[in-house]
Amino acid sequence: MGSRLLGGTASGMSLLCLTVCSAAAQSPTQSFVARVLTSSTGVRMPYRLFVPASRARVLALPLIVYLHGGGGAGTDNLKQIAGGNLKGTHLWLRDDLQAEHPAFVVAPQAPTGAQWGSPNSDSLAPYARLVVELIHALTLEFAIDTGRLYLVGQSLGGRGVWDLITKRPHLFAAAVPFCGSGSPTRVAAARKVPVWAFHGAKDVAVPVAGSRELVNALREASGIVRYTEYPDVGHDVWNHAFAEPELPEWLFMESRSRR
Question: Alpha-carbon distance 219 to 187, whole Å?
C-alpha cells in the first residue's frame, strides 16, 4: 500500500514526508496537529492527528480512527474535530483515559459531497481507500499496535464505519458506528469485529431502521454486536453515546489477538 505524506520530516525518512501545518490557535483543537496525506495516486486529504505524550509511547499504542459526519466535510482541516465532531474526537484525549489507555487519534477530512461508505458497491469509497492508506502510513511512522485499530464514526462517518468493517474486517479490532447505515446483505463479513452501534429512535436524517437491520443481520451471522437505541433522541445521538461511561473501557479491551 504505497503512500506518501508531504512536508518536512527528519532527514533519511524515505517512505514518508509530512506537511505539518500550524494547529488551530484556540483550545481544545490545538491538541491535534494538522497534516495532509498525499496518496499513492496524488490525491490530497487533510487530517488531524493526536500523538500521546512521549512517556506513554514506550510500547506500541492503539489508534482510534474517527470518521466525521456531514458537518465536518470540507478542506479546512478543522471542522472534522470541531462543532458536532468535537466529542467524537476529544473524548479519547481526556486525562484519565490517556493515563490508563494512551492512544493515537486520527481524524481525516473528506470534501463536501464525498462519502466514507459505498454499501452498494464491492469496492471501498474513494475516501475510505485513503483512510486505509493513511492508517498504513501512520503505522510506518509511529509505534502503533496494529492489533488495536479502532474505527469510530457518526452519521456520514457511521455509514463509513459499517462499510469499512464489512470490506476490511481484518483491519479493525472494534468499531463504533453512530446513526449509521449500510448493507445488511454484506455485513456478515464483519461478524468477527466487535461492534457497539448507537442510534436515536427519532432520527429523521438517518432513519433508525438502518441500524436495526444491520444489527439484526449481524446477530443472525453470529456477530459480536451490542446495540443501544435511545427512544427520545434524534440525529445527534453522539451527544448521548459519548457520555456512556462504559464505552471507552469496552473499546480499549478489544484486540484482534482475542479473536
Answer: 10
φ, ψ for residue 197 (rounded to 5)? -105, 145
Domain that holds residue 9: 3-258
Query: What is the rounded distance in angstroms from the CA atom of residue 230 to the CA atom of residue 240?
Result: 9
Contact partners, residue 55, CB within 8 Å, separation at least 6: none
Whether the Cβ atoms of residue 165 and residue 195 lie closer than 8 Å to each other:
yes
> What confidence score (pLDDT) does residue 27 get?
53
- pTM, two decimals, is 0.89
How many domains does one find in the chain? 1
Reported as a pLDDT band with limits 50, 70 and 90, residue 200 is very high
**Measured distance CA(37)–CA(130) in Å, rounded:** 8
Q: Answer whether 88's CB lies under 8 Å from 242's CB.
A: yes
Residue 138's domain is classified under what CATH number? 3.40.50.1820
Beta bridge pairs of residue 200: 230
Q: Is residue 249 helix, strand or coil?
A: helix
